[in-house]
Amino acid sequence: MAGSSAEQGKGRRAQPQWSPPARSEPCQLRLYNSLTRRKDVFVPQDGKRVTWYCCGPTVYDASHMGHARSYISFDILRRVLRDYFKFDVFYCMNITDVDDKIIKRARQNHLFERYRQKPPQAAQLLEDVRTALKPFSVKLSETTDPDKKQMLERLERAVALAAAPLEEAVGRSLAGEELDGPAQVLLEEAKDLLSDWLDSTHGSEVTDNSIFSKLPKFWEEEFHRDMEALNVLPPDVLTRVSEYVPEIVNFVQKIVDNGYGYVSNGSVYFDTVKFASSEGHCYGKLVPEAVGDQKALQEGEGDLSISAERLSEKRSPSDFALWKASKPGEPSWLCPWGKGRPGWHIECSAMAGTLLGASMDIHGGGFDLRFPHHDNELAQSEAYFENDCWVRYFLHTGHLTIAGCKMSKSLKNFITIKDALKKHSARQLRLAFLMHAWKDTLDYSANTMESALQYERFLNEFFLNVKDLLRAPVDVAGQFEKWEDAETELNESFYDRKCAVHRALCDNVDTRTALEEMRALVSQCNLYVAAHKAARRRPNRGLLESVARYLTHMLKIFGAIEEESSLGFPVGGPGTSLNLESTVMPYLQVLSEFREGVRRIAREHKVPEVLQLSDALRDDILPELGVRLEDHEGLPTVVKLVDRDALLREREEKRRAEEEKRRKKEDAARKRQEQEAAKLAKMKISPSEMFLSETDKYSQFDENGLPTHDAEGKELSKGQAKKLKKLFEVQEKLHKEYLQSVQNGSSQ
């Protein structure tokens, strides 16, 4: 009988104790928070859910690159939080369609169009322009901002130049087309001048509310088109001030009820002194040093709201309007305080508060909105909710400059988004933004865009090379190749670069560093591929494909790849890239192989005409179709499908470079010939004659032709004579060489 169960138990081996691996602390996402002016660990209030409000545009004119700076940057941040860090982002943005700027611009447009539809006689037009110039001149003399002053002075000069021909035509009693032409020119040049004058004299007569909604509706549509063209994601919810007036009225009423607002002459103002002195509240959280800055506060109130009468309605100069009593010529809504319209700051508070509640995770806007707009938003919202945490993280995008200068119409460097997209693609603009910190100033310049273009070309070449490698036929098992040291090293570097990208994104979404790490990864891959080509070995397709797909994934997260592309940048127009590449590549591959066969036969049989046709196919015909062929000695031709315009530019640059190289070569050859001709001419001169022609320097010579006296008859010093003797001996040697060459028949 076998041993007892106890004995059997003694003989069993137990599993050894397992020790978990040591791990480092995971990297945490930190965001630069304007409320603390430091990078704070990002902790949403509700798990992975992130509530986010972004200040949208005031729609009264074309969107410009300043708007692009803010909305592309926030789009990148939003995508990274959503698609990389996997937060559930609820993104809300507003459209300001009720504002002093909109009201004034809408009235001016309406009144000028009415004026133009019934154009006055030429003499009357000149009189109106002279009348309009009087208040304009006062405005010009009172303007201190140098950019604005320059713009006004330019307008004044343009009007004067346009008025002169019409004044001459009227003085000569001309009629018909001779009068109409100059009148139309003046009307166009004086549009801003006349619009301002018409508004000051007839603005109060504009009472139709539809006039004030037509302008913002048009520009809002243009803004959305621009955002779509820039590949900026639409918000999850969009709010318009005109649609939230009842909520704004209720919001203002509660602030008054809570004791932080007061009614004055039909308007309602926020009591900054009462709020700041209340326990648990603080006014000026973002820019405390700016509290009391009257210039900034008045800019925040708007041009139509800073009259002496309006300012006298406030208890304190720092108080700001929650609700404005409407004057004649302004849109209005009925409310408990009479007819009026919302103040600028309250709009965002009411709309964001209605949708996101008493506290949101992120509020975003441009750097210039910090004070007074965002500080006033915080104050009135915390007065409404009676808390001190309406916003947890305030993010502000940096300024945008144009070639180092502030963007302004006066400097003639005002660039609309549509203008920018005529020069560069949305991807190139986004790459330029990605290459800069989102919170710092970005300089939009030729150098900035050239860096973005170079980065795009660098990555695109890598993607095209990997695609070419993956197109090479291989059996199922053959795609799994043995890894040598080179593959192991590249894979380790790949992992390290991914970790570096992750650390960069955790550090305030530092896309600049992330892109540099991605560039370094591509450089390492290129070295790996080059080494394998030099050794006539195929690189590991699986490893390079993994790298290319990772880079594609990151570029999609950043919004730099707009379409569904599994690897690399899309080719062709929207929605066509995948179909285009998969459809045409097999045919191009066949064409390339056929061409290689023809070239081989042409070389063997020495048929240069066929080789020339083959080169023309590569250099002239296929680039027009967006196809690049790359011939490599001893290796198959590489076929690449490239953006046609980019390829044609590339071809033109190559031709220019070749032409420049040829020109430099010709210049060098000509210079050598000139130098040789000059040397030969000098060699022909006998040393005894070399100084005789210099009578302006010397007056007497010895029997060998050496000077003995200067031009004034004074004997030369020993030092001078010694120096001339050396020159004589050098020439003597050269002349002997010349005579020898003549004797040998080598010179003419």
TrEMBL record:
Residue ranges of every copy of the tRNA synthetases class I catalytic domain listed in the record: 42-452
Designated gene of the protein: CARS1
Cofactor: Zn(2+)
Name the record gives this protein: Cysteine--tRNA ligase, cytoplasmic
Coiled coil (residue ranges): none
Alphabetized PANTHER family for the sequence: CYSTEINE--TRNA LIGASE, CYTOPLASMIC, CYSTEINYL-TRNA SYNTHETASE
Enzyme nomenclature, EC number: 6.1.1.16
Domain of life (superkingdom): Eukaryota
Gene3D superfamilies given in the database record: HUPs
Function of the molecule: Catalyzes the ATP-dependent ligation of cysteine to tRNA(Cys).
Catalytic activity: tRNA(Cys) + L-cysteine + ATP = L-cysteinyl-tRNA(Cys) + AMP + diphosphate
GO MF annotation list: ligase activity
HAMAP family with a match to the protein in the record: Cys_tRNA_synth
Organism: Vicugna pacos
Region (Disordered): 1-25, 653-720
